[in-house]
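User: Reviewer 2 asked us to show a designed sequence for the structure in our supplementary figure. I'm pasting the structure tokens here. Could you produce the per-position amino acids so we can include them in the response letter?
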């Protein structure tokens, strides 16, 4: 029997909806043999094209950019319109949802969004179940993307991994023992708010020197803009960080100042505020030889690497998978992430750091896997 599964992604800057066709779970011997062959011979994919399981097919996809002044009501109405366009009157068997913010998974409740107002304690699962008349599962976007990469992408064949998205924000999702691990209150994987520079700039969460504050696209762009206006002013370089091998982990970024430290009152970047340039612009200017852009880019890579090394010391994953727009920043960025992570990890803690295979579609493929869990 063929079932339609709807996958929805509430991202930080865009909304996406995909429709999948999922065949009956009954398999003949040839199909089982094919699935076993895929599992045993899989290697990381060279492109963003996903490794599709034999039972699922992507039928169609819709994606729109979220305007800067969007709120929860706008996002919900927009994604419902996208979904109904895909379904064209056909009923889905299940809906899987990736949401860019903390989620109480058991209750299907969105706790909040750090980027779009109006989502506080929103019963998203119940609203979507009423709209589509079928079971709905909702989880944080990083958890869902981790599930997608584990089933269909760069995590296939690895039972212990962390997926980290570096984009509008920085978030992580764990797969441990082959299953999602969300922690006591569903907040495991908040690597973006790991502090790597206690004397660093103020983050939206209220702490200083978080990975997200230093490594996310909007904050890097804001720091670059403010740094350009305050050229010539520098803060003292932060002290070097000790590594697990007794050496030092020098910061590659010298005396770069944060957005909140230049030209007046310190403040974090509020939800919904957009800069005139983007993280991609910073990466392109760094590649073109702009030293200020390069310093900010490598500072972010360093911060992410230290955060990953600390996470590896705590949980000891086999693999770290990085996705999100910032990961397209180039080889220098990747090299610094890997260097800082290896320098932070203690002796004997080994892992590799690889790009996500599913690209921007990881949350959609993860939402498919999430929906499959509630329709078995």
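Assistant: Here is a per-position design you can include in the supplement:
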């Amino acid at each position: 029997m063929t079932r339609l599964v709807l996958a929805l992604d509430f991202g930080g800057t865009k909304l996406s909806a995909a429709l999948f066709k999922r065949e009956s779970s009954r398999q003949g011997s040839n199909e089982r043999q094919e699935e076993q062959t895929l599992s045993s011979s899989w290697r990381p994919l060279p492109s963003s094209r996903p490794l599709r399981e034999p039972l699922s097919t992507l039928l169609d996809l819709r994606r729109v950019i979220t305007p800067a002044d969007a709120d929860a009501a706008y996002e919900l109405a927009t994604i419902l319109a996208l979904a109904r366009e895909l379904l064209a009157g056909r009923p889905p068997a299940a809906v899987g949802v990736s949401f860019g913010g903390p989620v109480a998974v058991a209750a299907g409740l969105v706790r909040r969004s750090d980027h779009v107002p109006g989502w506080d304690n929103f019963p998203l699962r119940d609203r979507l179940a009423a709209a589509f008349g079928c079971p709905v599962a909702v989880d944080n976007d990083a958890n869902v993307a981790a599930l997608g990469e584990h089933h269909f992408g760069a995590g296939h064949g690895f039972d212990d991994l962390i997926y980290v998205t570096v984009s509008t924000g920085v978030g992580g999702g764990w797969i441990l023992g082959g299953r999602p691990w969300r922690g006591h209150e569903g907040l495991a994987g908040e690597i973006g708010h790991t502090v790597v520079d206690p004397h660093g700039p103020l983050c939206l969460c209220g702490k200083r020197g978080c990975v997200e504050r230093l490594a996310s696209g909007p904050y890097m762009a804001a720091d670059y803009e403010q740094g350009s206006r305050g050229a010539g002013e520098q803060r003292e370089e932060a002290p070097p960080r000790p590594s697990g091998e007794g050496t030092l982990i020098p910061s590659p970024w010298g005396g770069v100042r944060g957005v909140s430290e230049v030209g007046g009152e310190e403040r974090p970047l509020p939800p919904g505020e957009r800069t005139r340039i983007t993280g991609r612009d910073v990466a392109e200017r760094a590649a073109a030889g702009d030293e200020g852009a390069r310093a900010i880019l490598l500072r972010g890579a360093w911060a992410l690497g230290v955060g990953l090394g600390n996470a590896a010391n705590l949980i000891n994953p086999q693999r770290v998978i990085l996705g999100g727009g910032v990961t397209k920043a180039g080889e220098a960025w990747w090299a610094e992430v890997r260097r800082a992570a290896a320098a932070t990890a203690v002796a004997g803690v080994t892992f590799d750091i690889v790009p996500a295979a599913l690209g921007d579609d990881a949350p959609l493929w993860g939402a498919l896997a999430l929906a499959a869990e509630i329709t078995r």
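For the response letter, you might also mention the following. Residues 161-355 form a domain with the Nucleotidyltransferase; domain 5 fold (CATH 3.30.420.40). The chain has ten helices and 14 strands.
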